[in-house]
Amino acid sequence: MTRSHSARRAAGFTLIETMCAVAIAGVLSSVALPTFQNVVHKARRSDARVALWHLQMSQERYRSDHASYASLSELGAASTSPSGQYSLSIASSSDAGFRAQAVAAGLQASDAPCRYMQLVSDGLNVNHLSGSDATLSNNDTVNKQCWGI
């Protein structure tokens, strides 16, 4: 009888052991998931940066042949970033400069501090702005994190 009891005991886990393992996995997941999401958001921001820099180069090529900067349709550029994580637009354009904007879309829209990214060129200077809304009100530290500079 002793032998069969110990054989049954070694056959599996108890309910308490299983619950402890599930609890530990839950705690580790709750710590790791936000960190993982931040890394994914940071990686996807490169999609916006590349798209905005591409628009900047296209604008400068266009400006070399015309008297002013162009709209998105005049450039023949796509309205979404290469990976589709951002919606692109030219917020304004004139003979003196332009504002190219990327707005997070889809899963990237949950990237609150860097939801809006804008590249502003006044012909001589280029500024990089970002924000959680269209006011682009991030301070310098957060702005540098959004732009990776």
Describe what you observe in this structure.
Helix content is 48%, strand content 18%. The protein is an alpha+beta fold. It has one domain (2-147). It has a four-stranded antiparallel sheet. Strand 3 (116-121) and strand 4 form a beta hairpin. It is elongated and about 80 Å long. The model has no long low-confidence stretch (mean pLDDT 86).
Describe this protein with a few key phrases.
149 residues; alpha+beta; four-stranded antiparallel beta sheet; 4 strands
**Total number of β-strand segments?**
4
Query: What is the overall silhouette?
Result: elongated
Number of domains: 1
Q: Which consecutive residue ranges, at least 5 long each, have pLDDT under 50?
A: none
**What is the C-alpha radius of gyration, as a whole number of Å?**
25 Å
Q: What structural class is derived from the secondary structure elements? A: alpha+beta
Largest sheet: 4 strands, antiparallel
**In which range does the helix fraction lie?**
40-55%
The fraction of residues in strands falls at 15-25%
Give the count of helical stretches: 4
Along the chain, the helix and strand elements come as HHHEEEEH
